[in-house]
User: Fold these one by one.
Assistant:
Number 1:
Amino acid sequence: MIIHLRSTSNLLNKNINWKFLADFSKLKFSEYGEIFSLKNINKNKSIEINLVFLNDILNINNNDFSVEVKKIAKLLKKLKHKLIHDPNPVIVGVSAFSYINEVEAAQTLQKEQSIKNLFLNELYKLTKKNKKLYILDIDSIFAIHGLEKCFDNRNYYLSRCRVSSLGIETLSKSLKKILNRIVSNNKKVLLLDCDNTLWGGVIAEDGIGKIKIGEEGEGLAFYEFQKVIKKLKNQGILIALLSKNIKADVLEVFNKHDFMVLKKKDICSFKINWQDKSQNIKELSKEIDLNMDSFVFWDDNPIEREKIKIQCKDVDVIEPDIDVSNWAKQLLEYDGFSKFNITKTDIERTIQYKNRQEFISNKANYKNEIDYLKSIKIKPKLLKIKDGNLDRTVQMCQKTNQFNLSSKRYNHSQIKELNKNHICFLVELSDVYGNHGIVSFVCLKDIEKKIFIDSFLMSCRVLGRYLENWILHEIIKISKKKKSKEIIAEFTQSLKNKIAREFLKNNNFRKVSNQYLKNFKKEMNYSLSKNKSEFFLLDQSKKIDYLEIYGKKRK
């Protein structure tokens, strides 16, 4: 991957502080002033960063405000053109810092700030339609370290660089955070201790009346910390408790303490026992079908933290600040949970995972699996891809790992293109446990009387219901309607999608011969040298099992 940096200002590409961004990927700098250019675009793996310092563009001595507005309009037009023709993600950083006279600014918004507000508003409007566009308010991140320290007049006069070495370091680190989230998934589970973590003191020793949580003193710090945790929960992060305690004591705090921000319904799992916390984490990972690299561990006890680092190496262990008053800020600033968009599914995630745990528990109590699945009244529904569910579609493509045949990570513009030119659909699911929302995405390509399964993925939350079999049956129905003779599936091995390969094996797919593969790839103009996928052909003469769960007779 290449990171292409463009700016209205010279960026001093030899400065050592670009190393934070260079650690992420290879950097390529354009000549300064070359903003929103379509030159040297790498259409496969590239990310464009455009840094706009409005003082390089605006004429502060021009009293005709409309002239400066036209400059912004021209800049926006150039950006829109780039977004149409450049398939890669684009990050736009904006700054309007200038030295102001306090008296002049007391009743009048300064021109630079006014133009910046106008520009930012238009940029954020563009992000609603162009999901590959990301915005960075440079002045806001510089303000944390001090604007005067991050800008440097001397650099500007000597080399036309607006920022200082500290400014470059701050830019480098902030841009890296955005890039990390563009190419990788956020963490999904926050694992928390109770005593001296959710509240001050030890519940077994101090009792509910003496633990510290409230509206003043140290108790206020724990109260504010819980407010941040609640915010994360409302954004779709799962909260689980891992505490060596008597469960009844912990539940009493949740049920009776007036200042508990977190409620029992906010917690997806209570692992309150005396066994090793690493064992609890491993059990939880299986229960909610999430890998441990999705987990973040917060515990005031350094011994417990070190044990998790050794025994659960994929878990991200946070080192809490010595001063509990900084915990709320520390958790807010932790970017592992950050995400660009919050969907309806995110908001309901705690309920969905609780439903899954209840589903697994009830299923284990039935002797006959099929009878149990019939009893829960599973109702799948096919949906078309529209603007209202596009974010959820992309979210599944980017995050689904276990049941994902091809592991293709399509973005918004790619999904729109696929939906326009091929057969794409979503699957929504409900049963007695509630509405699970949109849980599957399928993309089929009709190629020379063959149905090619380009993408077939499904949320791990609904595994165990044989929904994948029902979806395959729907694919066969589409194939017959199109009078296709064959159904071919692409499978790309990843570290986590073994279950998807088992699905192919158990549902009458067989690996195609090398000669068949060469002919098929030629038909679909598919590169043999670059792609490491395997291709499987469905034997339609055999039955697809378990369809009676969905009220369909076997043929």
Number 2:
Amino acid sequence: MSSNAKKIGKNIFFGIGSQIVIAIVGLLIPRLFVSSYGSETNGFLSSLNQIFTYIVLLEAGVGTATLQALYKPVATEDKEKISGILSASAQFYTRTGWCYLGCVGLLAIIYPLAIQSAIPVWEQVAVILIIGSGNSLGFFLHAKFRMLLRADGKTYIYTNASTLVQLGTSLTKVVLILLGMNIVFIQLGHLLLQAGLSLYITLYTKKHYTWLNLKAKPDKQAISQKNSVLVHEVSQMIFNHTDVLLLTVFTNLTVVSIYTVYNMIVDIISTLIGNIHNGFAFRLGQIYNTDKERYKSTYDAYETCYMALSVALYAMTFLFLLPFMGLYMEGVEDANYLDKLLPILFVSIKLLVSSRALAGATITYAGHFKKTQWRSVLESIINLSVSVAAILILRQYNIMWGMYGVLIGTIAALLYRANDMILYTSRHILGVSPWKTYRKWIVDLAAFAAVYGLSKLVPIRATGYVELILYAAGYCLVTFILFGLMNLIFFRKHMLSAFNYVKMTVGGKLLRKAKKV
């Protein structure tokens, strides 16, 4: 097995590389869909993706429970324990796959009857069946193996394969769209590539984990918390995907299209941050389950760097979201994609998500699913109730304003849950003062305000993508220097600790190479 430092490096490198490739190619697809098929078709596909995400709740709980259960046996190389856990997980995933296919069939019947659309019914049914068939392959083939790869720090294996699939899918879509092909054929190409992904992950795992025995006695006790995890997964699903569903029901597919385009752009940044975090996640989980005192010191340094990086990137997102949108959607006339309030709302949501990310990860490592499940339920209630109320009130003035309603609902839920996670993790798991975390956020938000102030002195006036990139490069340099200096001043110990870790990792690698020479 490769060293943990090497795995972390690969996870981050390939994660970021994957995100860059997907972002560059992926940004082209919605624009082509809108210009070639109209905002309604783009909204149709976006709403379907959200509905399928809800159906995935059938397996919610077992994935996270399996991952949490695997951290310790993977760290101690207990192969018998690993086989038992994955054997239990495999049984559950197989049952889930059949249930999922049943739900897909029901959706194919109900969706065309429930939604008013100019899209032919046969196209709606065909697209639903194709997307559903592709998603079901994961349950039957590689879902359980993906958990093992994540726990063993080999997330980059799945990332690389997934990147190739997404790249192939995007290129296929571009070609078929330019040829004027029906959206059914476009989705069919994605199905074939998904089948290839499932087959590759299955064969890779069987080749590199030859000792793995899925016929071992299922260790159902190891994933016994899956039902408690389910509550958390449902809450997270509501947070991530209720907005599009509510907009589909209470507004129209054009508003859904506007929302999804904005969300797609900010998600590029959140996925980038997530890829960096996922590079370390397996090691943090292993450390917590084998040496909790070491985890506490590691947490402090990691949290400081994670927060600084997150807020700095979202500061850049806030400044450049509207200028980019103006260029990206230029020429689209069936909907107005420029709105000054949307960057504020979307970035506020992402900042709140980042504020609770490490606390949430620690709750997962500790396995405190049952103890915190009622808090997740309350988050869901706040999200849904505030969103629906805000939509009904605001859409009376303008149908577009319904979008503000769902975003306000999400922010309200996050204000509660983010603070709850920070307080719970600090007091009940780590045994430290939550002020340590809040102090970091105050410093980073002050740096965010300083960058915003700079934008007023040096406005962004880009008439093309080249100019926009040059502005972004300049602002990026200033932003990261500012955030780095402020964190070095206020959290010198944590920053130096992180720097020393990188120095030891890189230095150790160079030393090993020198010895070989």
